[in-house]
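In response to the reviewer comment on reproducibility (Comment 2.3), we provide here a single inverse folding case reported in full, input and output, so that an independent group could reproduce the run without further information from us. The structure tokens appear first.
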């Protein structure tokens, strides 16, 4: 496929030329946790690295939103860790004032394990991880191609980036689509392995309340029945100055209502959680997470798709369906890239 063109108008003359950015050692698609952690490790090993993300804000599924003066975490709700390396990163983030301990569990699941949150909200975790890295936002990658000894990455606005190695961190079906668009073929065992990875969906409601909710401290709970898998009070959590509740629908409800009117699905979820709301709903918004959490987790912490030049895939589908899994996958990906990059 020919490169799409940027057009420069000069009177009636139109000159078309693709925009080629300078080459880097490692280009990372996706500035979520896995991409950011990998970038830090690659950069600290002395290699140049650039992150491209289609979103307006960093963090991917670590997401926060404002409605008026109310603040919501509407993706990942908290971070837990058992890995000493990731715990050290969280502690450093806390020292920098960008993360905080939220609690040690919720109602029946108080287990002594720290639940971390971002400060002032979840996207602060991504902002902390991105310090000192070169990130370019609103760059939607549409294809990845081989270009001799390098890779060439094309964006939806006709920019081309070349790199000695590439790491793909979008959810696996989206990464596979980028390979298909650039005609990069995988061996059949790898293709079968990756095509088998599917994700839960999640409809997330963000509701501004007139008064405090009835959700008990510390502000989060898992209902035992019904269509809701999680409900949290962002004010009690300490991130919102106004009463603000996040509701996550379970996979079954989200899938069944995916194509329906989002505000109507939101209303059903608000009705299902009425006893926890405890106050009038002033306004609400609904966000759909098509790739919320992987249902299957791969047996390896990342996937080396091609060794020369190195092409790696990472994310929570490889090391666990949580923020920590994404971080550990990012670490494994950095190690794999550094081992295969030419010196
Ligand atoms: C509703 C919900 C609740 C959750 N709750 C928790 C929780 O409480 N605790 C927990 O530990 N985990 C939780 N998780 C899971 C956690 O958020 C993820 O495991 C983790 O954030 C995944 O990180 P990642 O880097 O693998 O992927 P992502 O965060 O998805 O990052 C991938 C990035 O790639 C970008 N991208 C995709 N396609 C392109 C493209 N073509 N071009 C450029 N950029 C692209 C995306 O914009 C995104 O920023 C939750 C997730 C959801 C959705």
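Designed residues, in position order:
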């Amino acid at each position: 496929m020919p490169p799409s063109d940027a057009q420069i108008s000069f009177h009636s003359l139109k000159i078309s030329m693709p925009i080629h950015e300078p080459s880097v050692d490692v280009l990372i698609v996706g500035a979520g946790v896995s991409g950011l952690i990998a970038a830090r490790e690659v950069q600290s090993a002395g290699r140049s690295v650039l992150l491209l993300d289609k979103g307006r804000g960093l963090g991917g599924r670590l997401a926060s939103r404002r409605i008026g003066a109310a603040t919501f975490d509407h993706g990942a709700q908290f971070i837990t860790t058992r890995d000493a390396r990731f715990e050290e990163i969280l502690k450093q983030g806390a020292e920098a004032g960008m993360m905080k301990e939220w609690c040690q569990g919720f109602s029946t699941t108080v287990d002594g394990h720290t639940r971390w949150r971002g400060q002032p909200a979840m996207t602060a975790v991504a902002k902390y991880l991105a310090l000192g890295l070169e990130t370019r936002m609103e760059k939607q990658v549409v294809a990845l191609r081989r270009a001799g000894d390098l890779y060439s990455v094309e964006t939806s606005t006709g920019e081309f980036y070349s790199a000695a190695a590439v790491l793909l961190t979008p959810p696996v079906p989206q990464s596979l689509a980028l390979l298909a668009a650039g005609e990069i073929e995988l061996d059949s065992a790898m293709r079968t392995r990756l095509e088998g990875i599917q994700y839960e969906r999640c409809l997330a409601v963000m509701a501004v309340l007139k008064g405090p909710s009835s959700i008990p401290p510390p502000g989060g709970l898992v209902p035992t029945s019904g269509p809701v898998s999680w409900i949290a009070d962002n004010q009690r959590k300490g991130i919102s100055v106004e009463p603000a509740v996040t509701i996550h629908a379970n996979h079954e409800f989200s899938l069944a209502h995916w194509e329906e009117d989002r505000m109507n699905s939101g209303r059903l979820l608000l009705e299902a959680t009425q006893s926890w709301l405890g106050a009038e709903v002033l306004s609400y918004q609904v966000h759909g997470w098509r790739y919320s959490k992987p249902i299957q987790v791969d047996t390896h912490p990342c996937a080396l798709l091609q060794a020369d030049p190195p092409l790696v895939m990472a994310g929570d589908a490889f090391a666990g369906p949580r923020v920590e899994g994404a971080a550990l996958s990012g670490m494994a990906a950095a190690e794999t890239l550094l081992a295969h990059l030419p010196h």
